[in-house]
# Entry
Amino acid sequence: MAVRTASAEWKGNLPKGSGTLETETGAVKGNYSFASRFEEGAGTNPEELIAAAHAGCFSMAFANGLAQAGFQPESIRTTAKAYLEKGPEGFGISRIELECEGTVPGIDEAAFQEHAEGAKVGCPISKALSATPIELTATLVG
# Structure
């Protein structure tokens, strides 16, 4: 069983404080603040990291599903957008949009879409985020 670890530290109050976060490997390390999370300030934020994790997980799951079906994907490129919005119960991620482009020789559009939907439902990050609506746009290129 793989266990992945990240840590964060926040100093100060919410509007004026600041924080740092880092993954155990050091591959991701950054600063975050009220401005980077709720406005357009410099730094990262938890939602950006969720989007990155989702894009990476979906791309891997999609490529794996295609390979298991006998296709050899050349490229699966995914952008994920996590929408942080204020609702009646406070802030939350209201939806995630996955936009994917895939170069997969020998596949038809229907099979491409079927495997994309399978990856959307089956990737571990999608499963973890199952309470959040996930929208998918998958485009077959080349």
